[in-house]
Design brief:
There is one protein chain. This protein folds into two domains: 215 residues, FAD/NAD(P)-binding domain (3-Layer(bba) Sandwich), CATH 3.50.50.60; 142 residues, D-Amino Acid Oxidase, Chain A, domain 2, CATH 3.30.9. It contains nine helices and 22 strands. A seven-stranded mixed β-sheet has the order 6-5-15-16-17-14-18, covered by helices on one side. A six-stranded mixed β-sheet has the order 8-2-1-12-21-20. A hairpin with a 2-residue loop joins strand 15 and strand 16. Helix 1 packs parallel to helix 4, helix 1 packs across helix 7 and helix 7 packs antiparallel against helix 8. Bound molecules: flavin-adenine dinucleotide. The site of flavin-adenine dinucleotide has 37 residues, from helix 1, strand 9, strand 14 and helix 7.
């Protein structure tokens, strides 16, 4: 490895960009390869006050950028009974959370990484990576052209797909088969407007609704993939509305939702890699482990991984042979703690003992 060879980060979401920002702070050159241009639909918007403070520490000036996102006063959850559970953010340091416009948030984070000195290649992809004695020889495609470059180290920040880690032989361990079916709902008046997010359990899963702008909401139903309608003639919208009809507390206007509302189905399962580090590489964020959206911890976890992975990479490049293993061990412990918390939350809902969704959760977490 030459002193000037950069660290290559595959994936420019929160985890990859946080890693780039922290590497820049440690004076280590980094280049992010991002397949998109931050104009696609991205899910995962809720940031707790603690998450906001963590981001402010990583990205000075984040508060100013935060003005474009929706403020969140807290969460109201109907979980386990018809009694509302309130989480109020006012008394937390930070005083409010945020419901982010994710494409805008990720794009702003990419610009912050560039300002800090990292390179961000948009609409780019890693085509080949060959381990060399000193690091990696990689081929990157972008703008119809190809670059062959030497890099010191590779960070897998490709999200749940964990593309690079799997290419290195790592395996994804999935612990359930959860999916989210989400849509963005623009209400013409403020019928659904509230700065509190809403969570409600029903027989086949749970609902979530949050304002991401003055009149724009994200609404999603979380269930298991085998409970979705099947077949070529499946009516996802009809099924979604049928599930919605079983909810009591979701905004009433949602029931009139009509095309062109698009439904986006995404994996929302809990998963982790069997190994989050290898020779010359490390996985961060969802690539290393992905949480249930109920936790609202994905962005904070991504940023935290970025910070810790950058420190581990810096130590590794300075000859510390244990730093990557220590990171992997921390990630494994973190996942065990997360699973315990998740089991407790799902265990609180006992109203539908015969429901496949809830009985699977009360039976505990089984590795597939
Ligand atoms: C339905 C749902 C709701 C959620 N709600 C919340 C929430 O309210 N709050 C919260 O904190 N978290 C939430 N999460 C989780 C959160 O979205 C993720 O944990 C977070 O985005 C992880 O960041 P990441 O950078 O690891 O991965 P991602 O955000 O997935 O970013 C990966 C990036 O890599 C790029 N990429 C992928 N493959 C390649 C490739 N081969 N080459 C180049 N680029 C590539 C992608 O374009 C993307 O930019 C939710 C998740 C789901 C599924």
């Amino acid at each position: 490895m030459c002193a000037q060879d950069p660290v290559l980060i595959v994936g420019g979401g929160p985890a990859g960009l946080a890693t780039a920002l922290e590497l820049a702070r440690l004076h280590i050159a980094a280049v992010v390869v991002e397949r998109g241009a931050y104009d696609d639909r991205r899910l995962g918007e809720h940031l707790t006050p603690a998450g906001m403070l963590q981001l402010t520490a990583l990205v000075p000036g984040f508060r100013a950028v935060a003005d474009v996102h929706g403020r969140s006063a807290g969460v109201t959850a109907y979980w386990g009974s018809e009694t509302a559970h309130y989480t109020d953010y006012f008394l937390h340091p930070g005083q409010h959370g945020l419901n982010l416009s994710r494409p805008r948030f990720d794009a702003d984070l990419a610009r912050a990484a560039e300002t800090a000195g990292a390179g961000v290649l948009r609409l780019a992809s890693l085509k080949r990576a060959v381990r060399s004695q000193m690091g990696w020889q990689v081929r990157i495609d972008r703008d119809g052209g190809t670059d062959d470059v030497a890099v010191a180290f590779i960070v897998d920040a490709t999200g749940r797909a964990a593309t690079f880690s799997r290419q290195q032989g790592a395996r994804i361990l999935a612990h359930d088969r959860q999916v989210a079916v989400a849509t963005f709902w623009d209400c013409a008046d403020d019928v659904g407007a509230s700065t509190r997010s809403l969570v409600e359990t029903v027989e086949n899963g749970w609902w979530y609704c949050a304002a991401v702008g003055p009149l724009r909401h994200i609404c999603m139903f979380v269930t298991d993939d085998d409970l979705l309608p099947r077949g070529p003639a499946r009516d996802l919208r009809g099924w979604w509305l049928d599930q919605l009809s079983r909810a009591v507390h979701m905004p009433r206007g949602l029931r009139d939702i009509s095309p062109p509302c698009e439904f986006i189905t995404r994996s929302a399962r809990s998963q982790r890699l069997d190994v989050a580090v290898g020779s010359g590489w490390i996985a961060v964020g969802d690539a290393a482990m992905a949480f249930d959206p109920l936790a609202s911890q994905g962005i904070v976890k991504a940023v935290d991984h970025g910070r810790r992975a950058a420190a581990a990479i810096a130590a590794h490049l300075s000859g510390d042979e244990a730093s990557l293993e220590q990171y992997a061990l921390q990630v494994e412990r973190e996942y065990i703690g997360y699973q315990d918390t998740r089991t407790q939350y799902y265990g609180m809902e006992r109203r539908w003992p015969r429901s496949l969704f809830w009985s699977r959760r009360s039976a505990g977490v089984a590795t597939r």
